[in-house]
Amino acid sequence: MTDPVSSTHGAKAQGKAPAPQSTIEKTKLAATHALDTARDGARDVADRTAQVIDSNPLPVLIGGVVIGAIAGALVPRSRREAELLAPVGRRLRATTTDAVQSAKTTGLAELGALGLSKGALSEQGGKLVGGILTALATAGSAAITASREAKAKAAE
């Protein structure tokens, strides 16, 4: 009969890991192996995910926003949540409204300081559109003339 203690020391002396002797040791070894496998798998998934995010950050960001919006729409809003968030929503709305009005007032004041009114801007916009249309018409006429000249030279 072999002595378990001496056979374990013999395996260590030969540079080999000792074979598990009990059910507890076997369970520990299996759990350690499963943990290592799961850790390696998680590391691989994290690396692949990082590569995808690095190569396509915008679609990933948009996807995250969409998933968040869907989750927010599907999760029902509780009465307590409504009570807590209502004051925040009112302050946010008031602040946003004030900021937009301030930007509008400041922008109109700056345009007024430059001598630009709504009427002047409308007139300048009309002149710009008219100039663009004239340029397009001239370019089209030039293209037709060049095409006719090329056909005439080819016919000669």
Automatic annotation (TrEMBL):
Which residue intervals make up region (Disordered)?
1-26
Source superkingdom: Bacteria
Q: What is this protein called?
A: DUF883 domain-containing protein
Protein source organism? Sphingomonas hylomeconis
Its taxonomic path starts at:
Bacteria, Pseudomonadati, Pseudomonadota, Alphaproteobacteria, Sphingomonadales
